[in-house]
Request: fold
Amino acid sequence: MAQMNLVLLGKQGAGKGTQSQRLCATHFLVHISTGDILRAAVAADSALGRRVAEVLDAGGLVSDDLVNELVRERVARPDAAHGALFDGFPRTVPQAQALDEILAPHGVSLVINLDLPDELVLARLSSRRVCQECGKIYGEADVSAISGTCEICGGDVVQRSDDQPEAITRRLEMFRRDTVPLIDYYHQRGLLVTVDGDGTLDDVTAAIEAAIDRRSTP
Ligand code: AMP
Reply:
């Protein structure tokens, strides 16, 4: 079967995490989230993790070279042979160029730009909570977000340090600076499809699936 490599672009809080999980399950893709990989490095408290922790806490971006190397290693593992969904990567044009090279000869199949206005991003992220154990994400109205205990695994449900308002605002600025050129990069290659992220989870999933179908049916 041909390899399918999807890139999910969008501001933090646009719903990339949830849509990624669904797409990976439906299309048997490996979920490659550089944010998750970096947070795992921090949790492991390795020398690399300690360097990364400072950048994450400040809401900055980790260097292209480091992130590219982490992705290259992840893609080389056997479970990525069928394809992958990239979430949070690439974030810059140099990272996109590196990804083209890493995925050769298959390349990127489709880039989904999940679009959401800044006001909605701020509202969503400042109320977002995440389980430290299993990674489940909760919104403001979820009982687990209020009680602080995960309904799935009983782990602690916390606010990520990079979901504080100042860090969110910085990330929105960085998104414009770094990622807008990336949207142009993929648009020029005919790989970009923009999906409105302001809908129910099911509506957004359906819009993404329709875009994948259009791409796979010549
Ligand atoms: P995320 O979970 O995707 O929001 O990522 C959390 C943090 O990890 C970001 O704010 C960055 O500091 C760092 N990070 C994740 N992916 C990348 C990337 N592709 N390039 C640079 N830094 C990244």
In short: The chain has a mean pLDDT of 91. The longest strand covers residues 4-9. Strands lie at 4-9, 30-33, 83-87, 110-115, 129-131, 137-138, 157-158, 192-196.
